[in-house]
Amino acid sequence: MKKQRMIFGLSLLYWGLWLAILILWMGRFVTSFLSIYLVSALHLGEGVVGAVVAMYGFGAIIGCLFGGALSDRFGRQSMIIIGEIGAAAALLVVSVLADPVALGAALFVYGAFASLPSPAIAAYIADVVPPKRQQRAYVLQSWAINFGYAIGPIVANQLIKISYSLMFYVEAAVMIAVTILLIVFFREVRHLTTSAPAARPEGAMSRNWRRVLTDTPFLGFSLLMFGYFLVYFQSTSGLPIAMTDLGLGLGDYSVLLTINGGMLCLLQIPAMKLFARMGNSRVLVMGLAVTAIGYAVQAVAHSWGGFALAVVLWTLGELGTFPIATTTVAAMAPATARGTYQGVYNVVWSVSIALAPLIGGGVIGGFGGRMLWIACTVVLVGVTVGLRVTKGSRDAAMAAAMGAEDDSQ
């Protein structure tokens, strides 16, 4: 086995992918501005916009559903490369369409390809990073995503001033550049020894599916996170619509996205040591509780300052949700089914992407933005309590998975 150079306690096998993720998310901004694009540039109604944007989420369900299982069968690298190339091509098609039906179909394809790499990336990290350092690895992955998320809206806002089409072209170009980078990286890492599973016979896929669909602690955790995701994705679907109804503009919304991403970038890494001492379950519960307070503040906000305060609060909560939840899934999954577990978990994420615009647009259209934020607060309180109650079963499942991996080595 070749000795690998370590940076921040993690090997180059991790950092090559991390760099690709960072670049990718600096150019991934179309979905955040999609609702505004459809309303402002194509002049579609709020109800139609919700349905069109939801098609991206439905496509993402397909991508996650098969991306994880196929990565267990054929390898992580193939699914990551295919997903990025397909997403870039689909995005270029979206940029030239105006008919709502055609847009919905193209966004469905884009969502499928764009989500194909997600479970493969999460499983790859678990393959190449030892369990004791996985929380650090997923936190740093989240940092890269959030840094890009902070930069992306600034870039997109400038591109939109020139042309909405330019926003699509730039994101597609970034995807192509990242794909080239990944092809070179994956070719180089073949010379290094990794714990990534080799291609497995077809029967292994069905066994993995049976295992994940009968894992009660994992399914319970995924269901609770589904509630959180439904609320979280209102930040890119319901929030811009609600702010527009109050007379706030695109620039106001863009600044909020930058605040969210900027705070995560500044605080994510310093928070790692605290999270390591607290344990995954405790961090998740505290993160959800703070997020609930943020949405309660948002329910009474009527100005940009009020929304900014709410964003600050639920951003603090977000520090302890996404990376810790992914770490939890990785710890609960057996090594031979990591992609399948991450795929099912990402399906929950994708279903939320599909349903959040429909729910948010419907509630705002029928009852107003304030009612949406009240409902979000209630859901978050329920998720917080649920995570606290089910802590014991999750801890037992993680211990069992760790024991099985130790026995196999």
From TrEMBL:
Output the SUPFAM superfamilies linked to this UniProt entry: MFS general substrate transporter (SSF103473)
Membrane topology is:
Multi-pass membrane protein
Every Major facilitator superfamily (MFS) profile domain range: 13-394
- Keyword tags: Cell membrane, Membrane, Transmembrane, Transmembrane helix, Transport
Output one GO MF annotation: transmembrane transporter activity
Record InterPro entries: MFS, MFS_dom, MFS_trans_sf, MFS_Transporters
What is any one of the record's Gene Ontology cellular component terms? plasma membrane
Q: Where is the signal peptide?
A: none
Q: Where in the cell is it found?
A: Cell membrane
- Its recorded name reads Transporter, major facilitator family protein
- Source organism: Bifidobacterium breve DSM 20213 = JCM 1192
